Amino acid sequence: MDEFASFNAQLNRPIDAKNVEFQRMGRLKHIINAAQLTPELLQTLCRTADSIRRLAKTRRGNEALKSLLADKRAMLYFTQPSTRTFLSFMAACQILGLTCNEVRDPKTSSEVKRESRTDSIRMFSSYFDIIIMRSQIKDFAECCAYLMNRLEEQEKRSVPVINAGSGSDEHPTQALLDYYTIDRSFDFDEHSHSVESRLPALRATYPDLVPGVEHKTYAFCGDIGRGRTVRSLARVLAQFPGVSLFFVSADHPDLMLDDQLRQKLKRAGANVQEFHSLEADVNGRPLIEQIDCLYMTRIQREHNSESTEEELKQLDLSPFRLTLDRVHRMKEYAPILHPFPRDSVIDEIPIEVDNDPRAMYFRQARNGMWIRAALLVHLFDAADRLHEADSAAR
Amino acid sequence: MDEFASFNAQLNRPIDAKNVEFQRMGRLKHIINAAQLTPELLQTLCRTADSIRRLAKTRRGNEALKSLLADKRAMLYFTQPSTRTFLSFMAACQILGLTCNEVRDPKTSSEVKRESRTDSIRMFSSYFDIIIMRSQIKDFAECCAYLMNRLEEQEKRSVPVINAGSGSDEHPTQALLDYYTIDRSFDFDEHSHSVESRLPALRATYPDLVPGVEHKTYAFCGDIGRGRTVRSLARVLAQFPGVSLFFVSADHPDLMLDDQLRQKLKRAGANVQEFHSLEADVNGRPLIEQIDCLYMTRIQREHNSESTEEELKQLDLSPFRLTLDRVHRMKEYAPILHPFPRDSVIDEIPIEVDNDPRAMYFRQARNGMWIRAALLVHLFDAADRLHEADSAAR
Amino acid sequence: MDEFASFNAQLNRPIDAKNVEFQRMGRLKHIINAAQLTPELLQTLCRTADSIRRLAKTRRGNEALKSLLADKRAMLYFTQPSTRTFLSFMAACQILGLTCNEVRDPKTSSEVKRESRTDSIRMFSSYFDIIIMRSQIKDFAECCAYLMNRLEEQEKRSVPVINAGSGSDEHPTQALLDYYTIDRSFDFDEHSHSVESRLPALRATYPDLVPGVEHKTYAFCGDIGRGRTVRSLARVLAQFPGVSLFFVSADHPDLMLDDQLRQKLKRAGANVQEFHSLEADVNGRPLIEQIDCLYMTRIQREHNSESTEEELKQLDLSPFRLTLDRVHRMKEYAPILHPFPRDSVIDEIPIEVDNDPRAMYFRQARNGMWIRAALLVHLFDAADRLHEADSAAR
Q: What is the ipTM of this complex?
C-alpha cells in the first residue's frame, strides 16, 4: 500500500516503542495490538465491565449507561466481513448510548472515485468520534492510529482507533473478551448461586486451587497455527505468574504452534508444551483431566491452500474433538471457551456439551459485549462517571 | 433441516398444543402464528396501539414512548427480503426507543464458517433482547421459539421471538395490522371529524349496521390460494360471530381457496362463499355493492411456475380489478384494504382510487407500525407503564 | 418515467414558479434545488449551524441537541451510492436525535413485486417524518415534493423532502455546505486563535479586504462542465454584489463552462471569466495569486464517454493541479475548497497541501454535517427551541 509509505518507519519498530504512542498518561489512546493489554489495564477494564453489567440489570442503571456516551458517534468500518464481532461492538455501543454508523461494503462509492483510504479515514474522523475498524489490509488500523496521532500533533481533529481484527495478525479485543471470561470463571465468588464462595468446596477436591488467572494450566486445542485468537490470548496469559500453556493440535505444520510465538511465550516465562491429543499423557494422566481451562478453536478451512485441504482431509481429528465423555472427565470448575463460530460439520464441540456448566462459550460472547463497552468507556475517559453511576445505584 | 431435527416432535403437534408454549400466564412469550391471535389478545393489542398513537401526537408523549423500551435492543433478522415489513418493524421499535440491529444478508460470514443456524440464533440472544425474524426457511421462527423455551428451562438467557413472515406459511403480524385497520374502520366514533359518531347517519342508509368486526361480510379478492395474508386474516375473522367470508378469484387452482382452509373456516363457524368476479350475483345484487369490507391482494407472480405463468396470461383479470366505478358502488363506510405492494403493471387498484375515503391501504401501512409497537410493548410486559404515561398525558 | 406523467406540467415551469411551492410562509417545506438558497435563507441557516456547533462543544449542549428532534424519524433513501453525503446526513440527524432509517439498494424487494416508486415514497411517508433522497432518476426528488404537496392539499399525511443529489442536475445541500465554509472563512473574527480579529493585520497587506462573501473573486478549477457542485455554488454566489467568478478548465467541451450557465451567471450580475490555467494572466499577474477563494474539483471520469476518455488522456492536466508552490503564492487568507473525494491517482491536490492553513476541505466536510443539521432544524421549525437552548447554555 503505497499511501501508507509515510508510516513505514513507524511500522518497522519494536512493539514496545510503538505502544507508547497508542497511550497517553497511562490510558489507551488507540487499541491496536494485544501487547497493549498489560495486567494493570486488564484489571481496570474487567472491573469497568463488571460495573456495566451490574448497571445493566436495572432499568435505571440502563438509563445511566445510555446517557454515558450519548454525545458521541461511532464509525464501524468493517470491510472484512464479521457478523459476530460487528454485532458485539454494535451492542456495546448501544448500551452506552453511543450512536453507530457503519461502512461494510469494501467497494464504497468513494473508492470508485479513486479516493485514497487515508482520505476516507479522515472523512470518518470529521463526522464521528471513534473509528472501530476491521480490515483485510495488514497494518491498516495501525496506520490509522499514526494518522490520528499526526493530526493531533497538528492540533487538528483526531479520534481513537480500535482494531477489531486486521488481516491475519491482530485481534486484541477478542483476547480481551477471552481474558474477561477466564477472569470471571476463576472468581469463584461470583458464580455461586448462594452467598458463599464455591472455593472452599472446590478445595476439598483441588487443594491447590487459587482464585484468579495465575497458577493455572491452559490448553489450546484445534487450529493453533492460524488462530489469531490463540496467539493473542496466549501472549496475554503468559504475562501472569505460574502459567502453563499446552497446545494441542494435529501434526501438521499449518496447525501447530509456530516457532516465533513459542519463543516469545517462553521468554515471557510461561511453561509451554505441545501435544497431539486431548488424551496425551501428562505426568501419567490424560491431559484433558489435568487442565484448568480449555480453549477450543475451529480449523480455519477458509485459509487452506488446496494442498493443505487435501492433507487435512487425511487427518484423524477425533483426538481434538471435545466429546461429552471428555467434558465429564475435566476438572469440575474448568471453563471451556471457544471464540466461535464452531464448525457445525465436523462437530468440534457437539451441542450436547452446551448444557454442561463448564461450557462458557455463549457466556463468552456476551462477555465480549460487556468488555467492549468497558473499552469504549476507557477510551472516552468516562470511567469516573460510570463508577459514580454504579455507586449511586447500589 | 437436520439441525432442527430435535424439534420435530414439537413441530408435528396440533396448533393449540403448540400455542400454549408460546404464552405465559395469559401473555404472549413469542408470536409465531396467527392462531395465537384470540379475540381477547386482539382487543388488548388494539387498545395498546390506540394509546401509543395518542401519545405519539405530542412531543412529550413521544418522549414517554421513547423511554419505554430504551433499555432493550432488538435483532431484526430478515434474511428473506422485505422492505415494507422491515421498515414497519424498525419504525415500531424506534417509537419505543428500542435500539435496532439488523442482519439481512442470508450469506453472513458465520454461515461461510459453517456455523449452525441455532448457534447464530443463540448469538443473537446473547447480544439482544428480542429476535424479530423473517426467513425463507419453513418453521424456522417456530424452532427458534422452542430453542428459547429450552434455554429458559435450563435457566439460561432466553428472549422473545417474533415471526415476521416465514416461508409461505405464516405472517401473523400482517393479520394483526389488517385486523387493527378493520377494527378502527368499524369504530364509527373515531373517524368522525366532528365530535359525533358517524353511526346514526350511516344507520339511516344501513339500518342493520353495528360497530365492531362482528356481523360483517368480508370479501377477499385476487390471489386467494397463495396469499398468506388472506389465509391468516380469514382465520382471525372467522373467530367472531356473524362473519361471512367471500373469496373472489379467477378460476385457477393456484389462485383459489384451498380445501384445507375452507374446512377450517367453516368449522370455526364462518359463512364461506366463493366467486369469480367482484360483480358476481349475491342474492340478486352484485357482490361489490353488498360487502362491508374489501381485502384486495396482488397476484404473486414471483411464485408462478412456468406453466402457471402461461396460464395466468390467458386469464381475464378485469373481474378482479377495483375500478373507480366499482368503488363508487360500494357501501359508504366499507373499508378497502390491500397488504401492499400493489402491482403497478396490472393496476389491480388504480391510483385514482387512492383519494376515495374508503381507501385504507396507506393508513393500513401506518397502522402496521402502531400495532407492531403494541406487540413489542406486550411482549416486554410494558403495557402498564404505557397506560400510566397515557393517563398522565391526558 | 410514466408514473410521474401527472407531474409533467409542474416540472415544465420556470424555477421561480416552482420554488414558491417548496416553501410556506418564508420557510422551506422541501429543499429541491439550489435556487431556493436565497441570501436571507443562507444567513438563517448559517447562524443556525453556528448555534449547533456551539452547543455540540459540551456534553450538556449535546444533550439539548439530541432531544431537539428526538420525536422524529428520517428515511435516507439513497439509491444512488454516496458514502460521503450519506454519512454526513446520518451524522447531522444523529446530532439532533433524529432516528435514521435507510434504503440504499436500488433493487428493493418492492420493486421486484412491481410496486411503483410513488407507492414506495408514500410508504416511507407513512412510517417516517422526512425523506432525504439521492437518486439517479432525474427530477425524482422534485416529483416527490409535488406528491407530498398534493397529499397535504388532501389533508393527508405529508412530510418534507430533501434532495440530497439527484441525477446530474441538482445537489443543493452541497452548495449549502460550500457556502457555509466560505462564509466562515471570510468571517475573520472566528478563526483567530486570539481574541482579536485577523482583519486589521490582513488589511496591512490587502487594503481592500472586507468580511463576508461579497466583493470577492472565486476561482473554480477542474471539471466545470460536469461538476454539479460548481454549477450550484456559482449560482448561489452570483446573487451577492461584487462577485467575480473565474472558471479554470482544460480546453475540452465536456470540461468547460456551458453556455446556459454562463448566461445565467452574467444575468445575475456576476463578472464571469474563463481560463485554461491556474497560471493564466489576469491584469498582468497569475490568476492563482489574485483570487480570494479557490474551489477545486475532481475530473469525473466515471461520466466519460469512451471517446472523451481517450481525449482526456491526451490533455496536459498540470495547469490545473494545485501544487504546494501554487498554494504558497495564494493570498494568505484565501480558502481552498474541494467537494471531495479528490482523485488520489492524478493528485489534483497533493497531500502536502493538507497542512496549509488555507486548506479547508476537511473542515468543509465537517461543515456539511453542521449545515445539514441546521437545514433539518429549519425544516422541522425547531430553530426557536434550538436558539433557546443555545442562549441557556451561554
A: 0.94
